[in-house]
Amino acid sequence: MSTPIPPWQRRTTAIVVVLAIGSTLLGLFRAGHYPPSLLPAFYVQDLVILLVGVPALAFGLRSARAGSLRGRLLWLGALAFMTYMWVSIGLQVPFNGFFLGYVALFGLSLFTFVGGVVGTDADAVTEAVGDVISERRYGAVLGLIAAGLAALWLSELVPATLTGTPPLLVEEVGPKALVSHFLDLAVVVPALTVVAAWLWQGRPWGYVLAGVALVFGALLAPAIASMTLALFLSGGVTLPLVAVVFTVLPVLVAAAFAVRYLRRIPGRDRLAGADSDRSV
User: Fold this and answer.
1) What DSSP string runs through 13-67?
2) Angle, alpha carbons 78-83-84 (nearest 5°)
3) pLDDT interval class at 279 (50, 70, 90)
4) DSSP per-residue string spanning 117-177
5) What are the tens digits of pLDDT across the range 16-25?
6) What is the DSSP letter of 280?
7) pTM, entire model
C-alpha cells in the first residue's frame, strides 16, 4: 500500500514551486542577475523551469495526493528534475542575492524526492505496470542512454586528461563549464545503469525508478534541447554537430519512452493510501 504524502512533503513541494517561480522571474527580468557568459542559455533554462518544470511538479503533487500512480511518478520525476537543475544552477551562477534561495531549492527538492521515493509502494507499482511494459526494452533504453551520456562526456574529458590541457569548453565558458559533466558522470550515469539492471531483472524498485528516471529525462529534454540550440546558434561556444545530436538525442528518447510508460499504466491507476487531508 502506498503511504499518503506526508504534510511536510506537501509543504516543501509548495515552497519549491514558489521559490522556483521567484528564481526564474529574477533570472529573466533582473538586469545583471546572470553574467554574460551564461546567456542566452540561462534565459532559456529559466523559461523551461517556469513553463514546464513548475507545472509538472504542481500537477504531479495534486494527482499524487489523489492516489494516482501516474501523478506520483510525475511528482517524483519533477522533484528529480528540480534537484538536478538547482544544484547545477547553484554551482554555476556566481554569488548573487539569491544564493541562499538556490541552496533552499536544492535541499528541499533533494530531501522531498528521497522521502517521496521511500514512501512509494514498489510492489503496487510493479503490479500496475509489470504486465504492460517490456522490462528488457525499457531496461535496454535506460542502459543505452547511460552509456551514450558517459561516452559523450568522456570523449571530451579523457583526451584532456591525457594531454593535461583543459577541454575547449572550459577555455570558452570558464572553470564552471564542467558542472553538468561532473553531475552526469557521478550521479546520473550510475543511477541509470543501476535502474536499468534492476528493471532488466524484474525487481520491484526497478519499475518505480524506471518511471521516475524516464519522467526526469522527459522534463530535462526541453531544457537540454533548447539550451544546446541556443548555444549552437549564438556561436559563443564551439559545439560540433555530432555533439549537439548526441546531447539532445538521449533526453528526447527518454521523453518518448516516458510518455509510453505512463500511457501503459492501467486507466484505474489509483493507489491505496491517497491523502484524506487535503490541507497543505
Assistant:
1) HHHHHHHHHHHHHHHHHSTTSS-GGGTTHHHHHHHHIIIIIHHHHHHHHHHHHTT
2) 100
3) very low
4) HHTS-HHHHHHHHTTTS-HHHHHHHHHHHHHHHHHHHHHHHHHHHHHT---HHHHHH-GGG
5) 999 999 999 9
6) -
7) 0.91
